[in-house]
Amino acid sequence: MSLSRVITLVIISITLLTLTNLLFFKPQKQIAMTTQQDVVKPTVKSHQQATIRNVNPKQVSTETAEVIDIKPDGPANPYFTLNDEIAINTFFVNDTGAIERKALVNVLTTGMNDFLEQVSSLPTNSEFAIERQNKLNQQLLLLNNMTLFEQQIGCAGRVCALSITTNELTEDNKQLLQNFDTNHSFVTATENATGELEFKAIYIYTDDPSQMVMTQS
Predict the structure, then answer these.
(1) Is 12 exposed, middle or buried (0-12, 13-18, 19+ CB in 10 A)?
(2) Full-model pTM
């Protein structure tokens, strides 16, 4: 074989080898890159999901916290223990027959509305209390030269309570109210912010109004 022919064969071999590398090795690189991209994508997604699972739900919650209204224990009405006529009688008159000053002051100055509310919530009163309340209602109808804006009445046992708001209450009308029965009478009269007269009274039945003893405290 001549030298020129050998050189020609070597050149052809090198050319074929180069073509082979271009045809077979270059696509493999493309496939490898494509495969790498496909593998990377699930890895990113997996990492994102793991991050979401680790987030504290309190940090992403948009719910508003529920506000709980906590009310103080115990009843609102201070006279809730006066649950029958006997309790009401002994609240104002002790075992010795003396009138309890503190009970009168509390009801007449700050507690009249609560006291009347409690009396109204009791079961049907005795015939004696019902009769006294009817008499007091009749006396209200006899009042002269005055206008009643509001009135509340409650009787239980020996005790009747009255609260009225009026434009004027003369001494004659006060006496008229007191005389609906034989009573120890205790009253207050004050002018409210609108200039109206608020009259409050506690009437405690007695056989002899001239005999009365009251506690000092």
Answers:
(1) exposed
(2) 0.65
